[in-house]
């Protein structure tokens, strides 16, 4: 059986998480998805800390990262990832409700690979997640 690489989904909105997971599953994107509820949990996962201290080795193939979160926001997490020598090449897609030009500019400046604004409409939301997943998980090639 083929091993599917992990995706790290970082989002504090439970409804968005459920929709994202359902949308990816609907389109047969079967990678193992780790959900972090905030930026601090995401960096714990990436750096094998706290409850992730003994997790299986290996970086996610993709990080889907919200901006507005408690404890540590997505921009701070992005900055840490792109400044870390072993994590900087992990594709990071900002998946957020913020369409603020300053957020978009800052994320690209820090090295985000893409910036996707979550649509409000359910149908558009699922299509956006599907298209994002198809490109970054099925089409885009990454080095191990």
Provide structural commentary:
- The radius of gyration is 14 Å and the shape is globular.
- It contains five helices and five strands; from the N terminus they run βαβαβαβαβα.
- With 144 residues, the protein is of the alpha/beta class.
- Helix 1 crosses helix 5, helix 2 (39-46) packs parallel to helix 3 (74-83) and helix 3 packs parallel to helix 4.
- The protein has helices at residues 14-26, 39-46, 74-83, 101-110, 122-139, and strands spanning 7-10, 33-36, 62-65, 92-96, 114-117.
- A five-stranded parallel β-sheet has the order 2-1-3-4-5, sandwiched between helices.
- The model has no long low-confidence stretch (mean pLDDT 87).
- Helix 3 (74-83) links the parallel strand 3 (62-65) and strand 4.
- Helix content is 41%, strand content 15%.
Main sheet makeup: 5 strands, parallel
Q: Tell me, what's the shape?
A: globular
Report how far apart the termini are: 19 Å
How many beta-strand elements?
Answer: 5
> What structural category characterises the helix and strand content?
alpha/beta
> Reading side by side through the largest sheet, how are the strands ordered?
2-1-3-4-5
Compute the average pLDDT: 87
Order of helices and strands: EHEHEHEHEH
Query: In DSSP terms, counting alpha (H) and pi (I) runs of 4 or more, how many helices?
Result: 5
Question: Segments where pLDDT lies below 50 for 5+ residues?
Answer: none
Rg over CA atoms, rounded to whole Å, is 14 Å
Strand content: 5-15%
The percentage helix is 40-55%
């Amino acid at each position: 059986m083929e091993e599917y690489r992990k995706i790290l989904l970082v989002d504090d909105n439970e409804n968005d998480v459920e929709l994202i997971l359902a949308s990816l599953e609907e389109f047969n994107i079967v990678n193992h998805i780790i959900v972090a509820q905030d930026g601090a949990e995401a960096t714990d996962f990436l750096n094998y800390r706290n409850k992730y201290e003994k997790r299986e080795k290996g970086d996610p193939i993709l990080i889907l990262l919200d901006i507005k979160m408690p404890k540590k926001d997505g921009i701070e997490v992005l900055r840490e990832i792109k400044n870390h020598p072993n994590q900087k090449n992990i594709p990071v897609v900002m998946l957020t409700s913020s369409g603020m030009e300053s957020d978009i500019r800052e994320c690209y400046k820090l090295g985000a690979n893409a910036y996707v604004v979550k649509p409000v409409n359910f149908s558009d939301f699922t299509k956006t997640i599907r298209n994002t997943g198809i490109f970054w998980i099925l089409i885009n090639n990454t080095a191990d």
